[in-house]
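Notes from the 1:1 (GR / supervisor)

We went over the backlog. Supervisor wanted to see one worked example end to end before approving the batch request, so GR pasted a single chain during the call. The sequence is below; no edits were made to it. Supervisor asked that the structure be written out right there so they could see what the output format looks like.
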Amino acid sequence: MLADLVQMNPEIAGGNYHQLAAPASSTSIVAAPAAVDAPAPSLSRYESQKRRDWITFGQYLANRRPPVAVAQCSSAHVLEFLRYLDQFGKTKVHVTGCPFFGLPCPPGPCPCPLRQAWGSLDALVGRLRAAFEENGGRPESNPFAARAIRLFLREVRDLQAKARGVSYEKKKRKRPLPLSPPPPPPPAD
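Structure output shown during the call:
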């Protein structure tokens, strides 16, 4: 059950859901590479995070009843995982009936739930999407790239933007100002 994941890994309760052990199941898609007496190469922060996220997702699937192999997971499993992670979020998202709904800076505390921030979920999905393909998954069957996941992320983004009273606008690239020729020299007398 999902509670077993938290009991087996108490770090999750503190919001650190990335620190999980590798799943015990073997699949055609590797859950995590095993290092045997080989010094681990120094990974970038992104690569380390991507590896931890992949291990976390594999562990989540292995702890389901019945367990699901990573190769057999679908976008429904990914959505379930993202909703499961919501309980460990640290972002206050005001519900519609809250007196602070729509205020960017609420003046006081409220009982609204803490959720995963949209940006965190979006980055997580991006890392897992890349990890799926790096671990043997075919791009055309990548559950992290499914339309349902994009719609879910858009819905979370819009809901959180409304709750804060801030509309989400995609940042537009600023075009560099065209270089104008230097002004002509003053006339000589």
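Supervisor's comment: The beta strands are 91-92, 114-115.
Batch request approved.
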